[in-house]
Design brief:
The structure is a single chain. The protein is built from 17 helices and 17 strands. 36% of the residues lie in helices and 17% in strands. The protein is globular.
């Protein structure tokens, strides 16, 4: 029996027993990206062996050996490299268009960094937003004034959004206010205008359609909340069968994998691609030298993600991040970027590496930003708030690093716990300390009791008043007034490498000359 998340821990349940039988020993390699599940299977088998009177340490690995690099060739219309969220989406789309698709993954399971995603998906102007009351006028006005004052290159976009907002109010403020142009503005401001306006425009224009496409394969992101960097409620997230908020990655990845299989996509695991085959300047296939596989194809889709797990590469490109933990899946090591560079692809923004402000440092577990959107606050070791918790990730991370010890505590209450399977998971994993009063929680944190109690009472008044005079927060989802109270000790971690292979708005890879 097991209680693993389908598609995330279950590959270990499926594959480790066969390995153990093959070599007649429990001394087998764990499945990368499913390490804990693998160890769980191995420990269970060893416990069973001991109960049967067998000492597992006496079982020397043997059994059959498999030649892993026998040359083989496959032909396809489309080959996709990388079976994360992007790769599976590309594969499904191509297969639904009638193409023969081969999807090659270097690990033993699908998902990539999408398995790590705990929040949701930003999408602008969706019907699901209309189920919520618009209370973000202060946040929207703050974004417009900040953009107008800081980024003169965005003045036309600011004027467009201001007109859309004025027209919406003049028409009686029906439904929820958001727009594609506002999402573009938020994204450009969040990226400090380093980002590519043309690519951001494609992202925002297709965001609502992306939510509907996911719904079409059975993944419903029809709940909406607040998130850092968005001036209005725009993050779309799923609920589990019990009606609780749940991790979006663990929810979507198994659905995408099933949709791949239903569409006839051939998925090949444990096959790290290391070469793109070129012919007359066009990508016509890929090779995986360690397994001997060649896939010839009319189109090559590179969906290998970033390099957030390649800490050497990260520190070389941005020395200030040396020593940080990473939230990334182990497969995100920059292989695809290097392969593309080898055939002449240009890269862009390689030093643009984002850190996430809420990472549990002992396990590198990502603590979802959605908690802050739902009303959680951050306090330092002195029991004091120190920033707008739903600011952009770089701003919140910088504020944390300036605190005593470079860390903070994320505070939630029982009301938030009851509504979120995600928080319940954090509690089960031992990430939290708790107390029945603010003072009791402070004692568990090692923080001044009176200071934390005053901080919490002040925050609850901010929620009641809808105003945060000290830090300018404009999102007030919940007062934290239902005991017991919980705190998670967090600090920033490497989260998102935003640079990579240079593309145009058709996602075609460009060379140094822009061709």
């Amino acid at each position: 029996e097991n209680s693993e998340t389908p598609g995330i821990g279950t590959p270990a349940i499926e594959k480790i027993p066969a390995k153990i039988v093959e070599v007649q020993s429990t001394k087998v390699d764990t499945i990368t990206a499913a390490t804990y599940a693998s160890k769980g299977v191995i420990e269970a088998v060893e416990a069973a062996l001991k109960a049967a009177g067998v000492d597992p340490s006496t079982l020397v690995p043997g059994g059959s050996s498999t030649n892993t690099n026998t040359p083989s060739t496959k032909d396809a219309d489309v080959v996709v490299v990388g079976a994360g969220g992007a790769g599976m989406t590309a594969a499904i789309t191509a297969a639904q268009a009638g193409k023969k698709v081969v999807l090659v993954e270097k690990l033993s399971l699908v998902g990539g960094n999408s398995t790590k995603s705990t929040g949701g998906m930003n999408a602008a102007d969706t019907p699901y937003q209309d189920n919520y009351e618009f209370k973000q006028s202060a946040g929207l006005e703050k974004t417009l004034s900040t953009a107008a004052a800081t980024y003169p290159e965005l003045k036309d976009l600011v004027a467009t959004v201001q007109k859309e907002y004025n027209d919406w109010k003049a028409a009686g403020s029906k439904g929820y206010f958001d727009s594609v142009n506002l999402m573009i503005l938020d994204t450009m401001v969040g990226g400090k205008c380093v980002n590519d306006l043309d690519l951001v425009t494609v992202l925002a224009k297709n965001s609502a359609a992306g939510v509907e496409w996911l719904k079409g394969i059975g993944a419903n992101l029809d709940n909406v909340g607040a998130f850092g960097g968005a001036s209005v409620n725009r993050i779309h997230w799923p609920k589990n069968d019990a009606g609780q908020k749940t991790n979006v990655g663990a929810y979507i990845v198994p659905i995408l994998e099933k949709a791949c299989k239903d569409a006839g996509v051939e998925i090949i695991f444990d096959t790290p691609v290391d070469e793109i085959i070129m012919q007359d300047g066009k990508a016509v296939g890929v090779k995986a030298s360690s397994t001997g596989l060649t896939v010839n194809a009319k189109s090559v889709v590179l969906a290998t993600g970033g390099f957030g797990s390649n800490l050497k590469m990260v520190s070389e490109l941005k020395p200030s991040l040396d020593g940080f933990v990473t939230t990334n899946a182990p497969g995100c090591t920059g292989d695809g970027i290097k392969m593309a560079q080898a055939v002449g692809a240009a890269t862009v923004d390689m030093d643009q590496i984002q850190i996430h402000p809420t990472v549990e440092q002992k396990t590198s577990a990502l603590i979802t930003e959605g908690l802050r959107g739902d009303g959680a606050i951050l306090v330092n070791q002195e029991g004091l708030r120190f920033c707008d918790e739903v600011g952009t990730r770089d701003a919140v991370s910088a504020a944390e690093l300036a605190q005593t010890g470079g860390y903070a505590y994320l505070i939630v209450d029982q009301k938030m716990v009851d509504a979120s399977a995600t928080i319940q998971g954090y509690i089960k994993k031992g990430f939290t300390v708790q107390g029945d009063t603010y003072e009791a929680l402070a004692k568990e944190m090692g923080a001044p009791e009176a200071a934390l109690a005053k901080t919490m009472e002040t925050w609850n008044k901010c929620v009641a008043d809808g105003k945060d005079a000290e830090f300018g927060r404009t999102s007030f989802a919940n007062a934290l007034d239902t005991a017991p109270y919980y705190a998670i000790k967090i600090a920033p971690g490497i989260h998102h490498t935003m640079g990579g292979v240079k593309i145009n708005t058709e996602t075609e890879v460009l060379n140094a000359n822009g061709a």
